[in-house]
């Protein structure tokens, strides 16, 4: 009988530990999407070209010991509609995959749901190259967050608003 109690206790502890690890791992993943407005500035004084688009992404949050700081890596896909100038001409779009390191610092002294966001990454699509971004976030609840960001890519500037969902 004693052997069965010990075996049961060890099994319960193992299952509880595995469940806790799976729950923690599951909470580290998130998905999101954004709508954006993309602008290409002409370096020679010509017309600006602009287009609306979207981004879809997934991320993984890292554990860190800095209070109120979330660090993550994100992988995503962005696509724009056709770029048009002020004459209504245009048929080019920008799309492709990207990867970024993201740091999000929560601001409990202002509102614990408010954060500032910084990102740096690499676009591997039509607007390939390094990009940097900054913005603000708002945590609606533990599973849902909102973001507004400006991202400066190699050939375009991106203004975007999005949402993310933690598992």
Question: What's the gist of this structure?
Answer:
This protein has one helix at 2-28, and strands at residues 29-40, 49-62, 69-80, 95-107, 111-123, 129-139, 144-152, 157-166. The chain is of the alpha+beta class.
Give the termini separation: 41 Å
Q: Estimate percent helicity.
A: 10-25%
Give the count of helical stretches.
1
Radius of gyration: 21 Å
Instruction: Report the biggest beta sheet as strand number plus sense, adding barrel if it closes.
Output: 8 strands, antiparallel, barrel
CATH fold topology: Porin
Plain-language structure description:
With 167 residues, the protein is an alpha+beta fold. The chain contains 1 helix and 8 strands, in the order H-E-E-E-E-E-E-E-E. It has an 8-stranded antiparallel β-barrel.
Protein traits:
167 residues, alpha+beta, Porin, eight-stranded antiparallel beta barrel, 1 helix, 16% helix
List the helices and strands and how they pair.
Elements (H helix, E strand, L loop, with lengths): L1 H27 E12 L8 E14 L6 E12 L14 E13 L3 E13 L5 E11 L4 E9 L4 E10 L1
Antiparallel strand pairs: 1-2, 1-8, 2-3, 3-4, 4-5, 5-6, 6-7, 7-8
């Amino acid at each position: 009988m004693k052997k069965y109690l010990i075996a049961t206790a060890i099994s319960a502890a193992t299952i509880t530990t595995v469940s806790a690890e799976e729950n923690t791992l599951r909470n580290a993943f998130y998905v999101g999407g954004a709508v954006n407005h993309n602008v290409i500035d002409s370096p020679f004084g010509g017309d600006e070209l602009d287009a609306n688009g979207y981004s879809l992404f997934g991320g993984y949050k890292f554990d860190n010991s800095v209070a109120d700081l979330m660090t993550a890596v994100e992988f995503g896909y962005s696509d724009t509609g056709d770029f048009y100038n002020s004459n209504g001409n245009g048929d080019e779009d920008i799309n492709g995959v990207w990867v970024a390191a993201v740091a999000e610092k929560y601001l409990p002294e202002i509102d614990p749901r408010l954060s500032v966001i910084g990102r740096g990454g690499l676009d591997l699509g039509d607007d390939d190259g390094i990009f940097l971004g900054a913005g603000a976030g708002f945590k609606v609840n533990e599973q849902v967050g909102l973001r507004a960001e400006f991202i400066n890519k190699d050939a375009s500037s991106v203004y975007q608003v999005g949402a993310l969902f933690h598992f």
